[in-house]
Amino acid sequence: MRAEDPRPVRLSEYRPSDFLIDEVHLDFRLDPNATQVTARLRMRPNPAGDAGAALKLDGDELKLVSVAIDGAKLDAEALDVSPESLVIANPPRGAFELEIVTEIDPEANTRLMGLYRSNRSYCTQCEAEGFRRITYFLDRPDVLAVYTTRIEGPADECPLLLSNGEMIENGPAGEGRHYAVWRDPWPKPSYLFALVAGDLGVVEDRFVTMSGRDVALKVFVEHGQEHRALHAMESIKASMKWDEEAFGREYDLGVFMVVAVSHFNMGAMENKGLNVFNDKYVLASPETATDGDYANIEAIIAHEYFHNWTGDRITCRDWFQLCLKEGLTVFRDQEFTSDRRSRPVKRIQDVRNLRALQFAEDAGPLAHPVRPQIYHEINNFYTPTVYEKGAEVIRMLKTWIGEDAFRAGMDLYFDRHDGQACTIEQFVACFAETSGRDLTQWMRWYDQAGTPEVTVRTAYDADAKTFAVETQQITRPTPGQPEKRPVVIPMTLGLVGPDGADMPLIVGGAPAEPVFTLAEETTRIVFENVAERPVPSLFRNFSAPVKLDSDVSDEDLLFLAGHDSDPFNRWQAVQTVALRHLVAAAAAVREGRETPVDPRLAEAVGRAFDPEERDCAFAAQVASLPSEGDIAREIAQDVDPDAIHRARDDLKRALRARLADALSAAYARLAYDGPYSPDAASAGHRSLRIAALDLLAAGGDAEGLALAMTLYKSAENMTDRVMSMQVLSLHAGAEREEALADFAGRYGHDPLLMDKWFLIQASAPLPDAVDRVEGLMASPAFDMRNPNRVRSLIGAFGSGNPTQFNRPDGRGYALVAGVAAELNSTNPQVAARLLGAFRTWRALEPNRRGRAETALRGLAGMPNLSPDVRDIVRRALS
Ligand code: PHE
Ligand code: ZN
Q1: Where is each Peptidase M1 alanyl aminopeptidase Ig-like fold domain found (predicted)?
Q2: Pocket probe mutation, ligand 1, options 111, 123, 125, 127, max atoms within 8 Å of Cβ
């Protein structure tokens, strides 16, 4: 039987809680299958709530043992209890203490929400609604309480007993058991609660805050992995320092802890004082981690640490406001990385990522606003739109109101709202105040889904010496939002003269700032005193998350590629020219025609390998062509992934043919030795060398493959080893098999390294991919219970292998849908995430579209569909 759709949650129906909880005392008696949790809650009616309302507490798969109010046990008749809720019809009208005892089974918890076991440890995950799997509670972010947590467990199995805040007491508890009591003085919502118990190794250090307070830093990992926690520790110290310098934010407890666990649904979690991490984002050593791993760890450690102020000290009123903490914290971690590494390169990477994930989401059936107005399952809203577009909106705000008003607004926000659960309106009001601007229209960025498309047409009048820039913006309809209104788009612009220098911007007889506001459907800007025809450099530094269609010619773009003072647009210019070519070439492939490659495009790409090029990381970005996903999005409808792949492959081969000497020379020149260092400059150097190798091996060129094989065998660091294996894996043949077998032989014991091996095979665009993935699912290194394994194999196949996932015979769809069906009951969150692979299915050509739909309809008809999977399938099909 199919369960009825439960009622959705709507922002417009928000009401304050009828009760508040000031203090929470938790007492955990740990046991693998029967952990007892006693919760004593100091409660009172909320003056802002409904006087006389019943007390309704949230639960999820809970087993109630007992309930008492002010020490008096309630009998069954006074209660309305189910695994999903506990209702007390007539609670006291003043303050009271509610004591609830529940029993939970951590071993059986395969969803990894609430209290569960990972390897031999106990750990918790409570965001968004996991706390209700531990005890009945007002499990909503606007109920803030001070927590005291007593944990009791076996001393041998769990020498370590951790929770939020600081430890205030510990000792033996008899029969080989011991206990610890933790107290967190900062009021927090239940989703920030955490507990970890187990036998782990630790790396310790300290940090002295700007006001001179000493903070103990601890990173917990499995025994024997301590040497892989040093980079995470360095990243914590760097993050703490940066938040003091950049935002004036100081850490506020005597201890800050990070725990790495192997079973985790997401990347990491910002629980107050006790961040819990997916071990993939903690563990790194030169022997086991790539440059990308080092960079990710640094960024995610920073992200979770920054949540201490943007998330923990100031939290969200309700889950619709998720971007209040996530968009802002992503913005902050992006800034941190920009300051530590290369700002332009970070910007390029972030924009690539935004387009690949968020633009794709915004263009399909799962599109939703940065602040959704309705949801069925909140777990499905931890999305690129909430995170990455949420961060873009803040970056854009900073561009629009200027650095000083932005910083003042942040200070005001921290000052005014510390200790509160807030809304986007309260956040934006701070910037309206410090900038003096009306931000009413600005709110559309939060409420309107879809990527605005901006068309720019330009005209130079040589007689009048004027240059006119006309813009038009449209946002296409998205689910539930048929009509769109114009948004406030800041366009940072430059006019580049024939000598490559920026020309002065004169508008209305006066010098103009480079940030122009496009707030209407159309805008016209006329620049004066323009002595010669300029080349416009539009949306410098990607000043707004829009899709740009301009009449700037390829020739002018390639001029910008060589001259623009804005590095982002130097990169973008090459990308745009390449993308125009690839779209045309993909269409030509379908008609059996060929499209010649413009030699000037090859030349622009070739410049990345020029011996004069100093910034390798930037050059590597220039040399990396638009992805197949980028091309598909540009085509937008009737998409044929095979034609796209073929067009891109042809371009790579043409580039190889034209640039062979320069590529070989660069590959040789960029060879290096000496000890491994993951710093940005060294990583950039390696990435440029790999970009050369990738082009040299285009079309399975024998010489290129031989070079890749040599690099694979002689690699002295994991980046070279993985990246050379990846290059080899794109081309069927003996080299590919040799490298893959060698890698498994060397690293078969290390699950995180086997994840790389899974991912590379799952994303190889070869016809045997489905068979391979099926074979690998049966291999001993694979484990359906571990989200990292599932994502590396099935997730990578679905989202990173466009030709094979979208096989015309539908086998790719069936594979991913089949795994999602299997995970539907054991881990619905991971199942739902896998289905993200279907977010662009409607853009496909009719045969594939039909097959994708069949796979989705098959899932929709399954019995016992979890709310997570049902929500995605229903929206994908709507
Ligand atoms: N709040 C976490 C972060 O972005 C993400 C997360 C969400 C983790 C839900 C677990 C569960 O930092
Ligand atoms: Zn976050």
Answers
A1: 450-550
A2: 127
